[in-house]
Amino acid sequence: RYLYHIKRYPFPEAPIRLMAGSVTPRSVGLVDEAVIIEMCKSAKFWFHHTKRNTNIVGLAAFVICFAPVHFGTNDWSLFPIYFPWGFINGIGVRYVFNISHWTYTYFYLTCLYHKARMKQTRLMITAQYDKYSRTTDQHVYYLINTFSGIYADIDENNDRFFKTFSIIFLPLFMIFVDCELTTEIAPNLHIVTRIVFGYLLWSGTFVILSYLKVVSSVAEEAKKAYKPLNKLQITLKQNSNFCRLKEMI
Predict the structure, then answer these.
(1) For residues 196 and 60, what is the distance between their CA atoms, to the nearest angstrom?
(2) pTM attached to this predicted model
(3) Does 7 reside within a domain?
């Protein structure tokens, strides 16, 4: 709240405002319809997954506290003790998980946004070369400046958000998955508890794998953009040499 009060937003705003419908895709640098649809589909999946998973994790935390005691003792006289405790624990875990999961969703959307911008620009370059075999200096400068702007935004977001988030997120989720795995393979575990921990293990593993996938996809898209950028530089140099030759003639 303090950061928002002083107008230093911890998250990049463009993808969030775009998904909220407060700005148009063109105003945040997206014009390719296929790229926009792909990004919207991924965002829709993660919005639904985050909401659903947050509720399930809260329920799982309640079951973990409630079920082992209830089925282990089978004593209803303890119900007024372990039921409220399980309920409070479930609410607390849901609240904490809700914050962490939505933060990850923002991170994922930001990565998708940068990937979409790079992919869109790369496709524009490819289409230009496929259609005309060469391009004008003005268009070359436009595309180079577009890529430079994307890389500058990524660098800024990395300093403001990505770096800190990755340092905190990845170790914590790996510890979480390790704890779930250790509990899951433990002997003499009640079947209900084993099912709950199995779901939590799957959920945590899925988030880590999606994190690695989206980060690597941004890096891969940047790698794919190097070749078109090289084409742009060569074209710009050839155009400059051609103009210089015409002046000499």
Answers:
(1) 6
(2) 0.73
(3) no
